[in-house]
Amino acid sequence: MIKTFTQDDVIRYVYEETSPEENLLIEDAMMSEPELMTFFLEALELRALMNKIERQPRQSTVQTILNYSQHHPENPPRRLRHS
């Protein structure tokens, strides 16, 4: 039986979520299917670009959290339950 690989399989390969046996089969498929190889190269480039993205919260968000933490007790008192 011949296994057909999809773009999802290539993405799993890019993120190293495939077994060594799958790796060999996917590599063979990419060598014989130019469209799959093109997708692989684009996925690698996209992964590299995404790894460069740095996200930081707005200063106002950080200040809100700091203000909240300064005005609230670390361990609020617990309510006693009456039976």
TrEMBL record:
<protein>
    <submittedName>
        <fullName>Uncharacterized protein</fullName>
    </submittedName>
</protein>
